[in-house]
Known about the structure:
Strand 10, helix 6 and strand 11 (about 175-180) form a beta-alpha-beta unit. The chain has an eleven-stranded mixed beta sheet with strand order 1-4-14-13-12-11-10-9-6-7-8, with helices on both faces. It has a two-stranded antiparallel sheet with strand order 2-3. Strands 5-15 form a two-stranded parallel sheet. The chain has one domain (about 1-35, about 45-305): Ribokinase (UDP-N-acetylmuramoyl-L-alanine:D-glutamate ligase, 3-Layer(aba) Sandwich). The chain has eleven helices and 15 strands. Mean pLDDT is about 90; it is low at about 1-20. By secondary structure, the chain is α/β, with parallel strands linked by helices.
Amino acid sequence: MTERATRYSSAKFIQPSKILDSLSVTTITAKLARQLVVPRLASSKKGDNGIILVIGGSRLYHGAPVLTSIAALRSGADLVYTGVPRSIITAVRAFSPSIIAIPLADEKLTIGSANRLMATMPKKADAAAIGMGMSIAKREALITLVKLLKAAGTKILLDASALIPEILDEISGTNTVVTPHFGEYKRLFGKGPGSALDDRVLNVKTVAKEYRITVLLKGAIDIVSDGEQTGLNKTHNCAMTVGGTGDVLSGVAVCLIAKMRPFEASILASYFNGLAGNLAYKRIGLHMMPTDLVDNLPTAMKKFDRINSRG
C-alpha cells in the first residue's frame, strides 16, 4: 500500500541518545482512499456488509453509543445492535428507529451483564465497538466481554472507558483497534505520545508493534499504525474539537473493520470522518455538533462508493 501513497519523511526526529535518519509514513489522500475502499457486491444480502455491536452509554453519556451506532449505519453497515444500560434504553430507542437497542442488565458493565448480552445477541457480530460513554463496575467485566467477543470471532474496537492498561494483555496479538486521544493514550500505555509530530509517529508505531494491535491516535493530525504500516490523516478542521466527534469516528471505523484489515480500515475511517467534518465546517463554520458529522457522512463517502456487479 505504501508504494501508492505520498510520503512523509523526517530527519529531525530526536530519540534519547539517537537521531533517526528518516521515518516514512503514508499520508492518506483521496486517491489512496479510492484504492482502499472495498466494493459492495451487487448481489449482497442483509448482513453481508457488516453486523455491528456497539456497547457503551451511561446515565450521563447516553448520546455516545447513539452517535457511534448511527455513524456505523451511515458508513454502510447492514445491522447495528446497541447495548446500553436499561436506564437509558428508551432515550436510545427514541433517537432513531434504525437502532436495535439491547438493554444491559446492570447500570455499569459487569461480568454478569457481559455474559447476558452475548447470550441474547440475535446474530453474531462481525465487529464490536466498546467503551463510548460507558461505566465499568470492575475491570474484570471488560476483560470478560473482550474474551467472549474474541471467542465468537468478532473484531474489536476499544475507545474511551475501555482504554485501560489491564486490557492490553487480552488484546495483544489480535485484530483489535484502539482509538485514544492524548490523555487516553497515556492512561492505556503508561506514558504520553509526545508533543512533536515525529515523537508521536514513532511512539505510536512502537506501542502498536509491541502489542501487535492497531493504534489510532486522534489529534489535529491523526496517526495510525499496526507496527508495520504507519499513516497520517491531515483532513480535519478546528471545529471538530466538539465532544462526540470521536464517537462518530468509532462508528465509521467499526463498520469498515468488519470488512477490511484493521490498519486500512482505521486510516480510511479517519479520513472519511475528517471529510465529513470539513463538509460540515463549510456549511456552519465553528458551530458544529457531532450530529453534523453524521449528517455529512453520506456525502463525504458517496463519491468513493464502488459496486461489484459480478458478485
